[in-house]
Amino acid sequence: MLLAVNNISVVYSDVIQVLKGVSLSVEKGKIISLLGSNGSGKTSTLKAISGLLKPENGKVTDGEIIFQGRHIENQSPEIITRMGIIQVLEGRQPFKYLTIEENLRVGTAIRPNKSYKDDLEMVYNYFPALLARRRARAGYCSGGELQMLVIGRALMAKPELLLLDEPSLGLAPLIVREIFGIIKKINEEQGATIVLVEQNANMALQIAHYGYVMENGKIVMEGKAEDLVENPDIKEFYLGMAASGDMRAYRDVKSYRRRKRWL
Amino acid sequence: MRKRVFHPCGNYHENYADQLKVYETDYGRFFAAAGLIVLFGLAPFVSSPYFLYILNSIGIAAIAAIGLNILIGYTGQISLGHGAFFGVGAYAAAFLATRLEIPFLLSVPAAGLITALVGLIFGLPSSRLKGLYLTIATLAGQFIIEYVLVHWEDVTKGTMGITLPKANIIGLEISGDIPFFYVIFIAMLVMLWLAVNLMRTKYGRAFVAIRDNDRAAEGMGIPIFPYKLLAFAISSFYAGVAGAIWAYYTVSITSEPFNLGLSVEYIAMVIIGGMGNMSGAIFGAIFITGLNELLRWAIDLMMNMGMVTQTGLNLAPLREFIFGLAIVLFILFEPRGIAEVWRIIRSSFRLWPFSY
Amino acid sequence: MDFFIQLVVNGLSVGFIYGISAMGFVMIFKSSSVLNFAHGELLAMGAYIFLVLVTWLELPVYAAFLLTMAACFSLGFIVERLFLRPLIGEPLIFVIMLTVGLAAMFKGLILLIWGGNLHTFPDFLPSWLSLNWGSVAVQPVYTLALVVGTIFLVLFGIFFKFSSQGIYMRSVADNQRAALSLGVNVKKVFALSWAIAALVAGMSGIILGIINGVNVHDLSAIGLKVFPVVILGGLDSIGGAIVGGLIIGLLETLTGGYISPSLRDVVPYIVLVFILMVKPYGLFGQVEIERV
User: Fold this and answer.
1) Percent of chain C, pLDDT > 70?
2) Shortest alpha-carbon distance between residue C177 and chain A (Å)
3) What is the CATH number of the domain that holds A10?
4) Domain count across chain B
5) pLDDT tops 50 at residue C292
6) Given CB 3.0 to 4.6 Å as the disulfide criterion, which of B114, B266, C19, C198 pairs with C242?
7) Is residue B9 part of a domain?
8) Which of A87, A88, A95 is the closest to C174 by Cβ?
9) What integer is the mean pLDDT of C250-262?
10) Residue-by-residue DSSP string for chain C
């Protein structure tokens, strides 16, 4: 077990509770997918793991997060990143004024003084689009390029555990397909363990090994990705298909009740 | 008669008008009224002249600080030239009163308008600038105005200064601390009332939108440039009015007080009081003016006791030090200022014992 | 004509010193986007520490200089540690206001310790440093400033463009949250940039002290003059700061020489307002890239 999250609660500014007992476990070398609607606590879960709650005045008030046998709840991001957990933030946060290559070099921050040339090559191999633009300022690159950039930047850190927050946000379906393909490739070739937070459940479940579904700060369902895809509830609420496979009508009272029941 | 509201047990607004209410509960209304009665009925008569002078200084500072709060706290633009604008108001009033013999009631708002115009000029760079650069433009404004105040001798009489005639309201002469107390605090309440209500209009909401995200505000159809200019003008207007009243109050003015230090003092009032909170400006004015007087008093006392005659003189910079320390401590420990402390105290009383 | 040339030479010399005084300011801005209103006080700190070491402890100049540099470096470090570190992640306006408060604190402190009188350093610069072309002369201190300033300039240029630490520092200025998520040690970056900035400021403070004498009021005024200088050059460009300094220095001496000495100190700010209206990001600053 690479990472175990046991029953954590997260509270922002001492008053707003967003996670109410979330548990999940991540096995080495696997892709875990975290699904759920907006505000269900997916991003907060990631931030609790990576330590980025702190700058936002959030705190893990209960429960424990264990990474490679060490407690990391409420640790500072400097320490957690050095243990090998790197989060790719939601909404692509490039360093706008730095060139693509300089952006990638920042990824080496957790292991400075080591050569970064090989890693650069590795990233350019995965994302040839970046190589063509390596001298361009990141601020002037397209959304797709930026998403590749931020994933590549995280890869430069050689993470044990990569936390990806909505890599498909605002991208064209073709680009999304490409990026997911690369994520899968990274997982297979580098053996990187990945926790993937997604709205695009369909895509996420295609490449993930295991999935969790969150609602209202709790985990309401979990299972192997292939089982989740077959689950009628998941099909209906996240994949947009009625149990029979037709497009469903949301006003259908029965399904509303069913949904209510498992929230 | 409508239903009285005392203890809301949560945030249950039923319509938009509800959210815009100045007083959330009728308790607030009651305490405000009680406060006013004490302020106007009691304060001037029980306080010593010195204390009354401090109160008056607080009132004037509060007017200027309210204006600066509109700019910093609500529109998100830092101005480092507020002290100079205060000076422009003072000189404008002095000029209007001595050369054109305009009566008090007219010259004060007129001085405000003149200051607003000057403010507009220095607000112009905001057309193309954001936050940091704009702050520097106002810093430039501070120095340029200071220079003009000293060197445009035809109007300002340079270092000689100007002596103002006595203020006069419809034949009633205003001089001495008690009449000025009423003038200052009525003016302050009017200005406060204007400011609070301004923030409930579409203009106020536009200011806040610009502060929170000017790109998004622009996308929503708020023309940013005119609104930023407007905020600048309004804030300068407040500084001008405060300066004008101050000029009448102190009778004789020179350009020395309107330096960068004064601008910093106003910023300190807004920060320590609480940005984006009208009562914050008043808290800030009380705190800074009070601190200034307290330190002056303490140093005087030490000098008088004779034990530190020589060092007493060298202790004067202590004021500056403590002043800076106060700003630093507030930013470190309660960046939302006294107003926030006050709110927390109030709500913890109100919500006790179930805080969430 | 000689008068004009001498004015130009003086202006450029003074301007270069403005430029190097501004370097520390730009350092802090580059790494943390903070406008440091206490910069003038940092200059003064350097000058006063040097003063104590040279005149009162009578240390040899080189030792005193090195000690001052070390002291300033630690001072910047401590200031960051005590006052700025708790504000990491808070809105910028608070940090900037904090430096305003720090400025008042330092000024008060310096006045309490050393008083407001003008002090001077002993004359220790060798005369071979002064340059003469006919009737035009450059004083030794300006030659010294030119050499020292150029060295610092080149070092910083290399540091920010190529070294990893320099790139980390720029990344923090750019997007603090993202830098944090990649494990950039934001605290270390801030501490380092304040320490280096204070060191450079101390160095400039010493040079200014040699020229004008040591007085906290004058030095903190120069700390504010840094603003027109860096705006002209663009807030984030160290080379730009030097060019901005040269322009401001020239303008000042020419105005002082031909129009009126009292206008001298205001001219930079008048120019500043016009520059801002015409070219809002300065002559060399990078245009803000905004994506929503």
Assistant:
1) 93
2) 8
3) 3.40.50.300
4) 1
5) no
6) C19
7) no
8) A95
9) 84
10) -HHHHHHHHHHHHHHHHHHHHHHHHHHHHHHH----TTHHHHHHHHHHHHHIIIIIS---HHHHHHHHHHHHHHHHHHHIIIIIGGGTTS-HHHHHHHHHHHHHHHHHHHHHHH-SS-B-----S-GGG-EEETTEEE-HHHHHHHHHHHHHHHHHHHHHHH-HHHHHHHHHHH-HHHHHHTT--HHHHHHHHHHHHHHHHHHHHHHHHHHH-B-HHHHHHHHHHHHHHHHHH-TT-HHHHHHHHHHHHHHHHHIIIII-TTTTTTHHHHHHHHHHHH-TTTTTPPPPP---
